[in-house]
Amino acid sequence: MYLSLYLLAAAAIIIVGYVAGVALMRRYRRYEGEMTLTCPENREHVVVELNPKRALAGEIAGIDDLALRACTRWPERAGCDEGCLDQVGADPHALLARVRIAEWFEHKECVLCGREFKRVEDQEHQPAFLDRDGALIASTDVDPRRLDIVLATHLPVCWNCYSAETFRRRHPELVVESA
User: What φ, ψ does residue 153 adopt, rounded to 5°?
Assistant: First the structure.
């Protein structure tokens, strides 16, 4: 009888631990990644990364404790007052480059095949952008400092078309077009 109670208690602890771990990882990802902010010192765009461990610990403790882990102005300007963090606000997740890209793609259609994009952020195969000159750029290769320009001037391309077109351009001798 005691053995079954111990097993039941152990199973409950494992389930609660798993659920808590998943919840913590989701909260952690709210702070993880590159975001573009304006440096208050020179008014130029900078790409920063928050310290997600510190931010999550602060959130759990009920305090606002944001700090930078990286900045494109470092190491020259390392040790600044991190005044750019005032721009983060209540939802740092919305400022992350990967989130902005995912939201931009949502409900758009691939310009090459017409397939509608669903939830992009969670996909293993990320889509791409097509510029006016026909150049393709993977969404994961976009410089966050140029993100606003890319979102305003480029067209959406699904991963399947991006892969096929990239292969076609690199190895035209291996491509056979059907009639």
Answer: -120, -10
Bridge partner residues of 71 (DSSP) = 48
Please write the tens of the pLDDT for every residue from 111-161. Answer: 999 999 887 766 678 899 999 999 999 998 998 888 989 999 999 999 999
Structural domains of the chain, count:
2
* Residue at 82 is within a domain: yes
Model confidence pTM above 0.85: no
What sign for the dihedral angle of Cα 106, 107, 109, 114?
positive
CA distances from 101 to 10, 30, 59, 132, 176 (A): 42, 15, 26, 19, 33
Q: Which two tokens stand for residue 95?
A: 């400022």
In terms of residue numbers, what domain contains 157?
A: 96-174
CB 45 within 8 A of CB 38: yes
In sign, the C-alpha dihedral spanning 108, 113, 114, 120 is negative
DSSP 125: S
Instruction: Judge whether 179 lies within some domain.
Output: no
**In the prediction, which pLDDT does 123 show?**
64
**Taking a C-beta distance cutoff of 8 angstroms, is the pair 138, 130 a contact?**
no
- Whether 140 is in a domain gets the answer yes
Identify whether the C-beta of residue 88 lies closer than 8 Å to the C-beta of residue 50. yes
Short-list 117, 104, 101, CA closest to 159 = 117
